[in-house]
Amino acid sequence: MDVLIVEDARDQRKLLTAVVRRLGHTVHQAEDGVQALEVLTEHPDISLVVSDWMMPNMDGISLCEAIRDGRFDRYIYFILLTGKTDRDATVKGLSVGADDFLRKPVDYQELEARLKSGARVISLEQRLEQKNEQLSKTLATVESDLESAAKTQESLLAPPAVIQGVGFDWRFQPSQILGGDMFGYHALDDEHVMFYQLDVAGHGIPSALFSFTLNNLLMDVDANTSMLRKQITEPPYYKVRPSEDVVASLNQRFQTTAETMLYFTMIYGVIHSPTGKVRMTHAGHPETLWIRPSDGELHPVKDTGVPVGMMPGMNWNYSELTLKKGDRLFMYSDGITECENPQGEQYGDERLHCALYDGRHLPMKQMVEGVWSELGAWRDCKAFDDDVTCLVLEYQGG
Amino acid sequence: MGFGSRQEAGKTVVEIDEPRLDASLATPFRDYIFDLIGQGQKELVVDLSKVEFMDSSGLGAMVAALKQMGGSGAIELANPQKAVHDLFDLTCMDKIFTIHSKVNDALVSLPKSH
Questions:
Q1: Chain B residue whose CA is closest to A262
Q2: For A2-130, CATH number?
Q3: For residue B25, what is the nearest residue in chain A, using CA coordinates?
Q4: Are A291 and A330 in contact (CB under 8 A)?
Q5: How far is the C-alpha of B90 from the C-alpha of A390, rounded, in Å?
Q6: Are the Cβ atoms of A263 and B34 closer than 8 angstroms?
């Protein structure tokens, strides 16, 4: 161990140096506090200081204070030399952060024992520091991994688009960096467009990874592998699978286990673009709101079914509706209605309905923006407790 | 605060003394139920009367308990408050669990078989 002896009396210093050296330590010397700080800066291996109290320029108390003010990035164990019956010295020394005390004249056996106990504390401190360093490194890796996963998630989200006269727009805000909400839309053939929204239970990494898998499956447009089409023997050799079938087959494929508790709620729907006919299925997901500017009404679309992955062999219902030009479907995750304001009150269905009603004649993008900014004002702080998603489609005529 | 249980009419009534059964309590709750199942309790009635809010994680814990039971027993839910009842409606939990408005109703009923 590297030890620094700080003592203005030359003889005392030499004597202490000799004794500590004989105990097998490397010894550095300083005449006062100012010099001690210089030596400590030059020799980063010094981890223990034995210092006299009364010294010119800078005394032992000021030296201890200086060491404790955070200028060194290592822990330095501090032993203060005090007078024989100096109770005040002990109190003052402790208050500035001295670790131990040694009475003058120094008993060398006691000195050895105090150095040993110092060495124990230092080695504990060092191990703690190593652990801390490891933890910081690991945390940095995890954080950067999370960030790149979040970027992957962002890249999976379909950009707002118009497909076969069906406009799509959305807003999405994950609760942590990663969310379990996911959605998408794409053409199944020349006259069918699919759309989905899902919310995996829980949030964070397991939910997000599961939502990636589901997205890959649902966004697969390859005619041979897509689970959204059924192959048949007559031309055109496929049929668009009904929404309730798609949900049921997802349920057969992804059953939660007692350990993972992963299941999801979802909406899956297909719109026949020439006619505006929609067939859709809700699996434990909040109802879709059908906005009809023609009669100025909001119609809830619900065909409630259980969430996907809870129980094998379940069946789902479906809703059928025909959209007219300008009609919209607003789909959302429960993060919207369950969003709490600082007083703990939920945003709720009624406020959402009002916001949509108010925006029914505005262009789709502005209507969504209106809901989103109202929700942000309701929450009144940046982070959300749950993932928050809304997906809107507008039938612009076939 | 926390979870407790008592024997009544040959069933195990599980009490949740928590206002929110959400992500932070889903795993402890699941473990608590798994312990009961591990001790051989096969007829569980979960008393939800004190739960003001349950989220998808809380629901996940209930389903996990059901899966752990593996068809050799039953879990019934009783006395949900309005918000929890709404969640059960939205997710059609009556297709998966038997839901009673009172604990006593569960104690006189026969378990639902799957």
A1: B60
A2: 3.40.50.2300
A3: A202
A4: yes
A5: 18
A6: no
Length of chain A: 398
> Is residue A355 predicted with pLDDT exceeding 60?
yes
Q: Do B91 and A199 touch (CB under 8 A)?
A: no
Preceding amide of A44 cis, omega within 30: no
Closest C-alpha among B41, B43, B113, B29 to residue B78: B43
With tokens 């652990």, the residue in question is A131
- Asked whether this complex has an ipTM greater than 0.95, the answer is no
Residue B54 near residue B87 (C-beta atoms within 8 A): yes
Name the token pair of A3. Answer: 């030890």
- Domain A157-395 bears CATH identifier 3.30.70.100: no
Tokens at A372, concatenated: 């989103």
Cα distances (Å, whole numbers) of residue A398 to A55, A241, A262, A368, B9? 93, 21, 39, 23, 63
Question: Who contacts A180 (Cβ-Cβ below 8 Å, separation ≥6)?
Answer: A199, A200, A201, A202, A203, A204, A207, A208, A210, A211, A264, A387
Interface of A with B (CB under 8 A): 199, 201-203, 256-259, 261-263, 265, 284-286, 304-307, 310-311, 314, 334, 338, 386
Among A201, A258, A311, select the one facing B56 at the smallest CB separation: A201
A52-69 pLDDT tens trace: 999 999 999 999 999 999
On chain A, the residues whose CB falls within 8 A of the CB of B26 are 202, 261
* A213-264 pLDDT tens trace: 999 999 988 877 889 999 899 998 999 999 999 999 999 999 988 888 899 9
* CA distances for B67 relative to A238, B29, B32, B58, angstroms: 37, 14, 14, 14
Q: What are the domain boundaries of chain A?
A: 2-130, 157-395
Per-residue pLDDT of B51-65, as tens digits, reads 999 989 999 999 999
Across the interface, of B56, B67, B92, the residue whose CB is closest to A258 is B67
Contacts of A154 (CB under 8 A, 6+ apart): none
Each residue's pLDDT tens digit, A97-135? 999 999 888 898 999 999 999 999 999 998 998 999 999
Closest Cα in chain B, distance from residue A71 (Å)? 40
Among all chains, which residue has been given the structure tokens 């057969």? A252
pTM of the predicted structure, to 2 decimals? 0.77
